[in-house]
Amino acid sequence: MPDTLLRVEELRVDYEEVTAVRDVSFDVEAGMVYGLIGPNGAGKTSIMNAIATLVEPTYGRVSVCGMSVSEDPVHALPRLGFMPDFPPLYEDLTVLEFLELFASAYGIPHEARGTRIDVLLEQMRLGEKRDAMTGSLSRGMRQRLFLAKTLLHDPDVLLLDEPASGLDPNARSELAAIIRGLGQANKAVLVSSHILAEMEDFCNSVGIVEEGRMLVSGRIHEVVSRLRAGRSTKLSLAVPDERLAAFLAARPDVTQLVADASHAAFELAGDVAEAAALLHALVDAGFAVADFAEEAAGIQDIFERLSAGKTS
Amino acid sequence: MSETWLEPRVRLRDNPIGIAQARRRLRRRQALPTLAIVLLLSLSAAFYGSLTGEWLGVRSSLLVLFGILLFLGGVTQVATTVSEDRRSRLLDFHRATPTTPFTDALGYAIGSVAREYAACGAVLPFAIGATLLAGQSLLALGVGLLDIVICGWLYHAFAMNLALSSDRKRIPQSAGVIVALLYLVVFPLSRAGAGVLAHLTPIPTLAVLGVVAGGEDLTGFTFYGAPLSPLVFSFFAKGYLIAFLFWSAARKLRREGAHAFTRHGALAFFAITEFVWLGPVWSQLGAPARVALGGAVFAAIALTLACVLGASLVPQYLEYARCARRAARRASAPHWSEEGASAWPLIPAFALLVWLGTAAVVALPSASPGPAAALLSFEALLMTASSVAVIAFAIGAVEFLRLGMRGAAKSGTFFVGFVTLVLPWIAGSIVLASSLEPGVAYYVFACSPVFAGGGSIGLWAGALALDPVDPLRAHHVVLSCAVTAALATWFLLRGAALRRAIRSESPAP
């Protein structure tokens, strides 16, 4: 099995009056939880729909486990699980019947269906609802039922479009744990959202989309190191010292300095050795350093650096 | 999924949509009242039979009940289910699963009608009992019921296409009304001995089997002069339509907004339709007058169908833009058979098929003035030219409007259709009513492509019937052909300019 489970190459999606996706390319490897981030209307859902074959791309290629979804859907689609943003239900089917419908659609053998459905219902805490009509489920339960439907055939690649929308904080936390677990189970997970805080919980890779274009794509730490001039560093002093700003400003490896007598934030060029050398120099110069740490970079940070919030 | 699993092209057993829809339709609370009503109606018929001994009448009534359940109830249910799934986006889920669209289409066609099939199952014992008590053949009843079910599939496939093509909320009712209208048209035509359309219903089969009385006498039924069982023809005529309609529904189930047919598929459908429906009437066109009438009717229907099919294959703006961009990336021009490509290359193909069908009508040995004269006369050449012009007008106008007016194409088509196809007839009628000289009105009529098509067919039919042709009318038809050709040329040239503009917007390879 190839390491890259989902490959999108030069994808373009046109609608009547707008180009929603412009030559977007990215890979999602096994074990990646890839956050597709962008403002509403940036093109995230169009990318998802094109991967799931719901929208015909103008051109470009989408392959799942090495197989083209447009040219070889019979082989590619069983390896793909798709959960749209507002999933509809047959409200007059029971939870069990609804899952059986898709178990059959994905070719799960009769003898294996019951066990598989039971496992997922327990995992999604819907065991007690198996004979309830889907129309009677709450919003959170519906989302969990849909996640169960998406995982039913144990796909290698998962597309989750705004999976946490409408969920309460507890349900979001549970969902984050499930998505992290999918990454640990070596699945390739593509999650789209415009709520960055929830993406921080489970994504280890990121792609930022704006006006239908992919601004940046890759593992979070790689993207951060590409975007930053150096290491974002913060320090604070136990005893305020007016010399701090001048001392740091005089150093050639310090940029983007914001400092007062007690605190400083700056970009430090170089690696860990340069950070240790600076700390040593500060202590030697008589500064009472109470805290010296590299600031953890997150999705929010990346997004703010890149995005102007434009839609396609 | 770690193990290799291959989805079959069509799943009859374990059809996911079929099972899910059947479960929805057979919920005890909803299904029981329907079944109870059907049982009560059947019991009433049986009671009537036991009192009067008219078991043949009872059987006929029960067959009508079958028809109502499958044709009206079934059609409405299929259209409702597909339409709701399309609007709620549940159809998107099915599109994203590995099941083929043929499996999905079959699932909707069977599963949505589960309650009606169950109700028919409840009526069946009564129908069998009535047949036995009437001393009639059970085999005949079985064949008749099979034809009713096949007719049901035809209408259900039609309803599915309607629901997948239209955004209107009243599609289910519309589908039922169209089926009811078919029967309203068929009965008078059958009584008049011109009931070839009746083969879209179970009436000919049931009449041949003696299950129902009335209808057209089908003894001596022939297909291109060769004796053929009307049952075989009836099953074949419905069968090919079911196949094409299911194929069309499957294409639309796979992709929202897909054309009903591929271009090759549309040409094949047109050719098969001509072949099938000309067959039964061919040998009836023995006398010159009947050749003329039959030829005229056939040519008019063929020309209309060619225009409708041709226009339906014209790409929308977005389709053409996508096709042009794909072509630009591979540094080539769009191929005519691509669905997004311009439809103008189909004009000669459809015109040729219309001509071939018409030629077949006059190829009868008994036809007068003979095939060669009928096809090489001035009137025949004028009809051929006007067919090309009318088809070119239909395809050119629709292409210009779709590419040029984009979202407003529907209203634009309505306006252009009114101005070119309807207004000249209104204006001409006013002139005709107010003027003593009818020739002036014909000049106004001549502005409509309908006059070019209909007029040229009329002239040709007149020549076949050895009627003298009024030179004034020929003059008007020639003028109308010229107007239609001019309109078609203008639309095609404007369409070509729009295509060039769209291609210039396409990104370089």
Structure write-up:
The complex is a heterodimer of chains A (312) and B (509). In chain A, strand 9 (205-210) and strand 10 form a beta hairpin. The longest helix of chain A has 16 residues, at 169-184. In chain A, the strands form three sheets. In chain A, strands 6-7-8-3-9-10 form a six-stranded mixed β-sheet, with helices on both faces. In chain A, strands 2-1-4-5 form a four-stranded antiparallel β-sheet. Chain A is elongated. Helices cover 34% and strands 28% of the residues of chain A. Chain A has helices at 44-51, 73-76, 95-105, 110-123, 139-151, 169-184, 196-200, 220-227, 244-249, 272-284, 299-306, and strands spanning 4-14, 19-29, 33-37, 59-64, 67-68, 80-83, 157-161, 188-193, 205-210, 213-219, 231-237, 254-259, 263-268, 289-294. Chain A has 312 residues and is α/β, with parallel strands linked by helices. Chain B has 509 residues and is mostly helical. Helices cover 75% and strands 1% of the residues of chain B. Chain B contains 20 helices and two strands. A two-stranded antiparallel sheet of chain B has the order 1-2. Chain B is globular. Chains A and B meet through helix 2 and helix 3 of A and helix 1, helix 4 and helix 13 of B.
Describe, in short, the structure shown.
The complex is a heterodimer of chains A (312) and B (509). In chain A, 34% of the residues lie in helices and 28% in strands.
What secondary-structure arrangement, pairings included, does this model have?
The complex is a heterodimer of chains A (about 300) and B (about 500).
Chain A: E1 4-14, E2 19-29, E3 33-37, H1 44-51, E4 59-64, E5 67-68, H2 73-76, E6 80-83, H3 95-105, H4 110-123, H5 139-151, E7 157-161, H6 169-184, E8 188-193, H7 196-200, E9 205-210, E10 213-219, H8 220-227, E11 231-237, H9 244-249, E12 254-259, E13 263-268, H10 272-284, E14 289-294, H11 299-306
Parallel strand pairs in A: 3-8, 3-9, 6-7, 7-8
Antiparallel strand pairs in A: 1-2, 1-4, 4-5, 9-10, 11-13, 11-14, 12-13
Helix pairs in contact in A: 3-4
Chain B: H1 16-25, H2 28-52, H3 55-88, H4 90-96, H5 101-111, H6 114-133, H7 138-165, H8 171-191, H9 203-208, E1 222-223, E2 226-227, H10 230-254, H11 263-282, H12 288-312, H13 317-329, H14 346-361, H15 371-376, H16 378-405, H17 409-434, H18 438-445, H19 449-464, H20 471-505
Antiparallel strand pairs in B: 1-2
Helix pairs in contact in B: 1-5, 2-3, 2-6, 3-6, 3-7, 3-8, 5-10, 7-8, 7-10, 10-11, 11-12, 11-14, 12-14, 12-16, 12-19, 14-16, 16-17, 16-19, 16-20, 17-18, 18-20, 19-20
